[in-house]
Amino acid sequence: MTPTERTIARLPAHLRRYVVSQDYDAYTPRDQAVWRHILGKLRSHLSDKAHSVYLEGLEATGIGLERIPSLDEMNEKLSRLGWAAVGVRGFIPPAVFTELQALGVLAIAADIRTHEHIEYTPAPDIVHESAGHAPIIANRRYAEYLKRCGLVGFKAIATVEDEAVFQAIRNLSVVKEDPTATQEEIEHAQARLEAANQSRRYVSESTRASRLYWWTAEYGMIGGVEQPRIYGAGLLSSIGEAKHCLTDAVKKVPLSVACADTEYDITRMQPQLFVARDFEHLFEVLNEFEATLAWKRGGDYGLNEAIQARTVNHLVLADGRELTARVVEALPGARPVAEGLNTALVRLEGPVMVSREGKNGGKPWPGLALVAFGEGELPDKGDFKLELASGLKLRGFAVGGGEVLNLRGELDGRPVELPNVAQLFLSTGLPSVAGGPADPGAWDRWFGELNAFAEGEGEAKAREKKTTALHPSLAALYREVRTMRESKSIHLARLEQISNAATDFRDDWLLKVEVEELKQSARA
């Protein structure tokens, strides 16, 4: 098995299905020229402006100047740092990206930007994901931060509107990288993203987590505010941003948890950036942010976040059981049940999956479920009556395995409307409410999409169109120039002919740059 195949084999099945082959032979000669041009510019500009680990980090993670890196070569190097990389197609769901990162796996978008977008592209590509994210991983403390940041993003609660925004961003990036896209298609994609953003009812935990990640791992600077250095992947992988960020046009402010409440726009260069004192500062801010999440707070706060989100999340009960479902209602009790918990009863919309320590224990319950809070015990079978500390009284018939029939209840003397058939759980507290399923793999097996590759269909078609859009004659010229460079057998007369032939392709400036570099090298 290759290093990349070994990495993929270790991944859970629900993550493996988002992995794609890098298909190295699909890169065109112009793709290779794009890589070389960007890396040459970036290394030259960033040698004294990026964090001190940057240059050695390129070498340590298998990223060279002359050609697009292969994932196998990267994995050989990354394994020594406790990391790995897999190929993906464009934007993948945030929960997949953050779970991979928490596991120490970089999701590398296998595509590469076009020469028209050489300075900056909003779409994930191999320049951003490898030359941007990988080098600073050579600093072990920063590598730990990336994993922790991935875990926090994974645990944060996302809303149904967050999903709509993600799909709109993904669609816009595909359209913008598609050489055959019409102006009408581009405008529609931009309007779709604007509409998705306007549909947000509130700023979710997931959105705040993504902002923190953006202002640190993507667009972070480090050191003094007066003379900061670059460590964020978005800055390290963009020629335009790498130059712009160090000018007076960009305001630099000390990093704080306020970054989680600061919006960003992926379609333009950033007017303000946050500067961390050092990598320890990142952990200080992350810890402060993490303490605000339902994952850490649980109780009524967590329930409210889950109800607002209208998405699948999971409750962690006092005895360690985890219930994955949509939380649809929380009934306040007459008296507090535990610290931070005044809720007497919670309604869950099925399917409801029960797990413990992230491992599913069996077939999900298809219908409604209830969680009643307080000290009490549900008999395995037969009639039961319960009086809980919240003031809630329940009676019904236990079928077995938590299923109850003919359920009746009252709270402080008032009747409570309850389903006649339900799954009933009892708990003395609610220490955590976290985003997504407790066991993503089991949930995916029961309810996941049958074919994740369909989600990358648009990106795959855009890549195919970019390849076919390169005229065969132009591709041959790029290939010839690259062969000269690699063989170090440079023929000035032939280069002059290639330069003349390139004038037939007015929109392609990169080949002329490649030719001029070789001419200068031959004359030196």
From TrEMBL:
Gene3D superfamilies: Aromatic amino acid hydroxylase (1.10.800.10). The keyword Oxidoreductase applies. Keywords: Iron, Metal-binding, Monooxygenase, Oxidoreductase. InterPro entries: ArAA_hydroxylase, ArAA_hydroxylase_sf, Aro-AA_hydroxylase_C_sf, Aromatic-AA_hydroxylase_C. Transmembrane segments: none annotated. The keyword Kinase does not apply. It comes from the Bacteria. PROSITE patterns: BH4_AAA_HYDROXYL_2. Fe cation binds at residues 128, 133, 218. Residues 1-339 form the Biopterin-dependent aromatic amino acid hydroxylase family profile domain. Pfam families: Biopterin_H. One of its GO terms (molecular function) is oxidoreductase activity, acting on paired donors, with incorporation or reduction of molecular oxygen, reduced pteridine as one donor, and incorporation of one atom of oxygen. One of its GO terms (biological process) is aromatic amino acid metabolic process. Its cofactor is Fe(2+). Belongs to the biopterin-dependent aromatic amino acid hydroxylase family. PANTHER family: AROMATIC AMINO ACID HYDROXYLASE (PTHR11473), PHENYLALANINE-4-HYDROXYLASE (PTHR11473:SF24). This is Phenylalanine-4-hydroxylase. It comes from Archangium gephyra. The lineage of its organism: Bacteria, Pseudomonadati, Myxococcota, Myxococcia, Myxococcales.
